[in-house]
Amino acid sequence: TIRLGYANCRICRCVDAGCAPPACFVMASGDSAGGRLPSCAACGQATRVVRRISFVDCPGHAELMATMISGASVFDAGLLVAASNVPCPSPQAAAHVAALAVAGAPLAGKIALVQSK
Fold first, then answer.
1. Does residue 112 lie in a domain region?
2. pLDDT-derived band of residue 101, with 50, 70 and 90 as boundaries?
3. Residue 43: which residues within 8 A CB-CB, separation 6 or more?
4. DSSP 3-state assignment of 59?
5. Which domain holds residue 49?
6. CA–CA dist 54, 68 (Å, integer)
7. Over residues 9-34, mean pLDDT
8. What share of the chain in percent tops pLDDT 90?
9. 116 within a domain of the structure (yes/no)
10. pLDDT tens digits, residue range 46-79?
11. Does residue 98 share a domain with residue 87?
12. Domain membership flag for residue 115
């Protein structure tokens, strides 16, 4: 597919400083600034947004690279997930890494090898 997938979520934390992690965190869907936030699952108090996260499924098709590059300017970081059954980096993966580097997003690397049985 060449469709661009996109979703948002908000990570909220209990307003009670005595409420201990990780139970003090709860997720809220969407990106609505005025939307209702969930209560703390541990103590029932109100929560506040501490982090907004966007998930972008951006295939490496040339038709979508302009969209990805324009969006990369607002990324704080990126996570590249590539198929383990093809040579890496694929041309698409290399293009995405280059776009993130140009946008100034921090780049970190981790490779997990998948072994066949």
1. no
2. confident
3. 14, 16, 19, 24
4. coil
5. 1-57
6. 13
7. 88
8. 26
9. no
10. 999 998 887 776 665 666 677 666 666 666 667 7
11. yes
12. no
